[in-house]
Amino acid sequence: MGNQITRNTLQASFLDPMYVQYLRTAEYAAQLAAINDHSADRSYPNNSYMDLLQKAYLGSLSSSQKSPYGDPMVSKSSGSNPGFYGNNAIGVGVVHPGDTLMNPVIPNSPVEPGSPMSHNEFNMRFPGSVRNLRRGAVGPWHMDGSFGSSLLEEFKSNKTKSFELSEIVGHVVEFSVDQYGSRFIQQKLEIATIEEQNMVFEEIIPHTLSLMTDVFGNYVIQKFFEHGMPAQRRELAGKLDGNVLSLSLQMYGCRVIQKAIEVVDLDQKIKMVQELDGHVMHCVRDQNGNHVIQKCIECVPKDAIHFIVESFFDHVVTLSTHPYGCRVIQRVLEHCKDPQTQSKVMDEIMGSVSMLAQDQYGNYVIQHVLEHGKPHERSAIIEELAGKIVQMSQQKFASNVVEKCLIFGGPGERELMVNEMLGATDENEPLQKGELLLLLLLLLLRSVHTKDRWVRTRLYS
Questions:
Q1: DSSP element (H, E) containing 338
Q2: H, E, C per residue of 161-221
Q3: How many CA atoms lie less than 13 Å away from 249 in the CB half-sphere?
Q4: Beta strand segments in 194-308, E
Q5: What's the alpha-carbon Rg for the chain, to the nearest Å?
Q6: What angle do CA 260, 261, 262 make, to 5 degrees?
Q7: How many angstroms separate the Cα of 404 from the Cα of each of 113, 363, 369, 396, 452?
Q8: pLDDT of amino acid 119
């Protein structure tokens, strides 16, 4: 019955010319921008959008009675949203009882199950005021049409007053999920007293998982990992138990996991890494998870991540041609100095040098070996490319590899490559004249060491 009344009220409101005028105001546009996206249904747990529409409308009427200029008009370019006036599309974006918003990213997340929209999309699509309202972190609806507590609004509008952490007691979570409030807390935590740290910590610890996946809140958690007391870091790390994988795959949560891996105690690092066992390849191929795997390789003792490295065996070439996997393989080459690991990884790379050199991602792995590898590994790569230098020099990705060969190869290897490029060997036709190839020669000239005077002389001639 209540829903029917709401719908009838809505229909009546749309026939009211003053309501139509209200729909064109900046106030309406600012507070309800979240429902302009028609691709998903949305709901608030305690307040429907229609309730908010009616309250906003009544508030604007009250204000307009006081002043004839109380409702500023939006610019001509914004106009009114055709999806919410004068046609059957009015139901799009308007919620009904039982509608749900999205699936939770992690257990106990404030995000309800139902629709496939991810937590990331929610953060990106909805303005901070609406995201905060959903969490219940902000105060009640104000008759002036604004969301949020007066303290946060005062903080953002009062540029002359210098706030301290002690002044936002009871509002730390609300500040943490606001762009400017989050930055304020981060700056203050770097110089906070023990009492201030404890006050902030006590307020955020019940909401840790929610803040970790928030676009602004995650920075507050990271700052606590950096500047919090040892006991606080351990308690925060304890909140990660059972959630490491889901956080690693989340846009903002993965940053928190990386910071934790850097600073928490060794026993907690190892415990965190163990949650990724059986999911390594999934993380490597994920745009967020690959950063966590890289951080594990960089910061965790090798005997604790053997299952990570071993999962790459027989897949090194495939991963090297992957946009995220190529980064992980480079970290393995940098940090895993175990001879057996190095031998297995390099054997797979050396078996596909020519292909990797021409691949848009694999060329970075070959360049990495040329720059940071052992002398015999560099020589083996140059020897493999010999006879194909001209072809490689004209290929978009392999030309970067040729340049690295000239920079990091030995004098004899550079002589071999330059002779081939200038047509002094039988394997290739000499390079043809032309602006493009001339530029290539000049590029290679800059790559050659000054001491190789004969090379420079031949190139100039």
A1: none
A2: CCCCHHHHCCCHHHHHCCHHHHHHHHHHHCCCCHHHHHHHHHHHHHHHHHHHCCCCHHHHH
A3: 17
A4: none
A5: 30
A6: 90
A7: 51, 11, 10, 14, 16
A8: 46
Q: Chain centroid to CA 198: how far?
A: 29
CA distance 291 to 248: 8
d(CA 278, CA 391): 42
Distances, alpha carbon 207 to alpha carbons 56, 172, 248, in Å: 30, 11, 18
Number of H helices, E strands in the chain: 30, 0
159-184 tens-digit pLDDT: 888 999 999 999 999 999 999 999 99
Which tokens go with 230?
Answer: 């040892």
DSSP category for residue 232: H
CA distance 150 to 46: 21
Largest CA distance in the chain: 93
pLDDT: is 346 or 417 the higher one?
Answer: 346
H or E segment to which residue 145 belongs: none
Residue 10 in contact with residue 23, Cβ under 8 Å?
A: no
| Element housing 270 (H / E) | helix 266-274
Query: Which 3 state secondary structure label does DSSP give 355?
Result: helix
